[in-house]
Amino acid sequence: MKASKRLSPLGAVGIALGLAGAFVGHAANAQDFAITGVTVATGDGSEPVENGAVLVRGGRVVYAGPASGMPATGGATAVDGQGAWVTPGIVAAVTTLGLLDVGGVGESNDSSARNSPFSAALDVAPIVNPNSQHILVHRAAGVTRAATTTSPSASIFGGQGAIIDLGADPDAVMRPRAFQMVALGEQGGRIAGGSRAAAHVLFRNALREAMRLGEDAQIPGRSSDRPETDLGDDVPIDPRLSGEYAERAGDVLLTRFDASALVPVVRGEQMLLVAVERASDIRSVLALKQEFPRLDMVLVGASEGWLVAQDIAAAGVPVIADGLDDLPQNFEELAATQSNIGRLAAAGVTVAINASAMENPRNLNQFAGNLVALSRVPGASGLSWGQALATITSVPARILGLEGRAGALTQGAAGDLVMWDGDPLEVGSTPTRVFIDGVEQPLENHQSKLKERYRDLDRGDLPKGYVW
Length: 468
What we know:
Elements: E1 5-6, E2 24-25, H1 26-29, E3 33-40, E4 49-57, E5 60-66, E6 77-80, E7 85-88, E8 90-95, H2 133-140, E9 143-148, E10 157-165, E11 173-183, H3 186-192, H4 196-216, H5 256-261, H6 263-266, E12 271-276, H7 279-291, E13 297-301, H8 309-315, E14 319-321, H9 340-346, E15 351-353, H10 364-374, H11 385-390, H12 394-399, E16 417-420, E17 431-436, E18 439-440, H13 446-453
Parallel strand pairs: 3-6, 3-7, 8-9, 11-12, 12-13, 13-14, 14-15
Antiparallel strand pairs: 1-2, 3-4, 4-5, 7-16, 9-10, 10-11, 16-17, 17-18
Helix pairs in contact: 3-4
C-alpha cells in the first residue's frame, strides 16, 4: 500500500511550503490554500466557470466553482490567480512513464522484456523510477497521475501495470498490480505465432490455466473487508506458489508465476487492458465475456471502434481510444477516422484518450483540444469543451478505478490541480504551477535547464557544456 508522501517544493513562489528534512504524510506537508480570480474547469464534463475559485485543505479539494459559492477559507493562504485557468491534473493512460530514460538506449529502457521467460508475471511496481526525466517533463506538462506498464513483447501478455503519481518524491507507485495488459490484434497475432488464431488460443488457454490453478492451489481472492486507502486499494494478494503446488502438469504453457499472476484477472479482481484495433477483433473480444463473464475488460486503441460503438456500449466495456487516427497505419485500422472518439461518446461509450498512441503523452491536452475543433467541422464528430477535458482527467480516472479521488476537482478528491496561463486545450497554453495532493511541485527538468542554458548565446570563458 502506498504511503502518501510528498517532497516540499524547491523555490515555490506564492505558496511556500518549505523544505522539510524528512518525508511526512501529505496532510502534514500540504498547505491549505484558496485560489481566486481564475477560470475553473472541474473536469467532470461541465463547461469552465469564469470568476471561479478553488479551496484545498489537507491535500483535498474542498470547493471548486463560482467564487460566489466559496465557503469560509479560514486560515487558508490566499492566492490571486490573476486570470489563470485551473483544472484537475491530467490522468495519462496508458504509458511507460518511469520505465525508461532514453528510449533508444536499451540499458535505460525497461518498457519491454522481449527476452524474458516471464510475461503476465512481470510487475512494474519495483522498477518505476520517480527521477526519470520523462516523469519530470510530463509533470511540468500538467500530468499528475498515470497508468504505466511494460509492452507485450515475449508474449501477448505485457504484465502487471501500476498506477503512479508524478510527485517529486521517491514513492511514485500508488497502486501496484492495478491491471494486466494483453495484445489481441495484429501485434498479438504476430507475437503468438503469426496469426490472430494463435493469439486467441494462447489467451483462452492462459485464462483456463489460471482458473484451474487458482482452484487447485486454493489461492484466496481479494478480501472484501479490506479498507480502502486514500487513493485506491492495491491488489492485496500477489499469489506466488510454493511447496506442494510448485509442480504442475506437463501440458501447461505458462510458468507457474505467469499463471498465478492471471488468477486475479480471471476472477475479475484485476483489470484487463486489451489492445485491439479492428472492428471484427473488438467483437471477438467482447464475445469473451460470454466465456469468461467475470473479466473486467477495457479496450485500448480501438481505431475502428466507431463501427461497433453500439456493441461496445451494450457490453458496458470502457475504451481508451487513440486520439486522432485519421489515416490507416496498417490493415487493422483501415476504417480509422478522427471522429472515432466523438462517435463512441455519442453512442454512450465511456471513452478516454489513449496516451500510448502518441509519441509524447504530455500533448494529451492538445489532442483533447483537437476533439473540440472537430465538433465545428461539418460532417465530423467531436466533443464539447467539457467533454474533451474529461477524456484526459475524470474519465481515465474512472476507468482506472479512481473516480471521485483523482481527475476531477470535486469535494474530497485529491488536491491534484494545474494552473495554466490560458485555455488548457489551446496549443499555446502551458502550466505555470502544478499541485499533487495539495503540494506544489517543482517544474524543472533537463529540457527547461537546456532552455535556460542556451537563452544567452554570448561567448563566454567556458563552453556551454560547463555552464548550469
